Amino acid sequence: MPEWRVIEEGPGDGISNMAVDRAILTACEAGEAPPTLRLYSWKRPTLTVGYAQDIDREIDIERCRVLGIQIVRRPTGGRALLHHHEVTYSFTAPVPHPHFPSSLLGAYRVIAQALLEGLEIIGVQEAALASAGKAEKIRNSSRSPSCLSSINHWEIEVQGAKLVGSAQRRTKKAFLQHGSILINCDRSLLNSLFKYEAADSRFKSMDILNNRVVTLSECLGREVGYREVLQALKQGFSRAFPGRWSQESLSSCELARSASDACSTGVISTS
C-alpha cells in the first residue's frame, strides 16, 4: 500500500516557508521521506518571486518596504505571487514514482486532479484544467510580472479565470510543486507592487487581474475559512492518491536543514 505523508502548519514567515519546502525536497531526494503534502499559510503579506525573475527590473522594492511586505526568492520558477489570504500547498515526491509521470507537465496534471477533488469537496463545481492552447494564448497576451496574470498548462481555472497558481522544481531524484489556493485577493495592492515600462501596461495588468482571476470566496458567494479549505484539500489528495496517509511533523533532519537554510538566506526586502 502506498505511503503518503501530510504536514499541517500554521502561519510562517516567507523565508521559513520556502526553507521548509526545500528541506522536504532534499529529504525526498535522499530517500528519507515519503511523498509529502504540506499545507501552510503566512504570518504577513509576502511576495515570492521566481528563482530566475529579475527583481530589480520588475518589483517595486521600495513600495514593498513601505507597506511591510516581505520579498523572498522561491526555489521554483514563474512570476511573482503575493501570499496573503490563501491556503498554500506543497507536494513533494521522489523521482521516479509509480503515481507520477516522468515529465513536469505530467506531474502537474496528476496533482491538478487532486486539487480539483479538493475544490469539488468544498463546493466549487466548475473548476477545470487550462488547456495547452488556451494557456499559451493567455500567457503570451500578458507581460505582467504577476503570476496571476497568466494561466499555465494544467493550472486550474473557473470559467476562464485563474483560481490556483502553481510552480514546480524538478531534480534528478525528486520534484517539488507548490502553489496558492486563493481565498481572497487584494488585486489593487498586488498590481501596485510591480514596475511597468508604461502606464498602459499597468492598466492592462489590472484588467487581467479583475477579469481573469477568481477567489474561492467569489466562486462560492460566501466567506471561506482556512481550516475548511485545508480539510477539503486533505480529502482531495487522499481520494486522488489512495494508500496509507499519515499526519506527521517535520523530521529532525528536515527541521535542521530548514533552520540552516533560513539562517543563510537573506530577506530581499522587509519593513
List the defining traits of the structure above:
single chain, 271 residues, alpha/beta, BirA Bifunctional Protein, domain 2, eight-stranded mixed sheet, three-stranded mixed sheet, 24% strand
Please explain how this structure is put together.
- The structure is a single chain.
- The chain is an alpha/beta fold.
- The chain has one domain: BirA Bifunctional Protein, domain 2 (2-Layer Sandwich), CATH 3.30.930.
- 40% of the residues lie in helices and 24% in strands.
- The chain contains ten helices and eleven strands.
- The strands form two sheets. It has an eight-stranded mixed beta sheet, with helices on both faces. Strands 4-3-5 form a three-stranded mixed beta sheet, sandwiched between helices.
- A hairpin with a 3-residue loop joins β9 (161-170) and β10 (174-182).
- α4 (104-122) crosses α9 (226-240).
- The longest helix has 19 residues, at 104-122.
- The radius of gyration is 18 Å and the shape is globular.
- The model is unreliable at 135-141 (pLDDT under 50).
CATH domain fold name: BirA Bifunctional Protein, domain 2
Low-confidence runs (pLDDT<50, min 5 residues)? 135-141
Using the alpha-carbon principal axes, give the shape.
globular
Would you tell me the overall average pLDDT?
A: 92
Strand order of the largest sheet: 7-8-9-10-6-2-1-11
Q: Helix coverage percent of residues?
A: 40-55%
Q: Main β-sheet: number of strands, strand sense, barrel status?
A: 8 strands, mixed
Q: What is the number of E strands?
A: 11
CATH architectural designation: 2-Layer Sandwich
Query: What is the overall number of helices?
Result: 10
Task: Report how far the terminal alpha carbons are from each other.
Answer: 48 Å
Under CATH, the homologous superfamily reads Bira Bifunctional Protein, Domain 2
Following the backbone from N to C, one meets helices and strands in this order, namely EHEEHHEEEHEHEEEHHHHEH
Look at the helices and sheets and give the structural class.
alpha/beta
Radius of gyration: 18 Å
List the domain count as a whole number: 1
User: What amount of the residues lies in strands?
Assistant: 15-25%
Which CATH class?
Alpha Beta
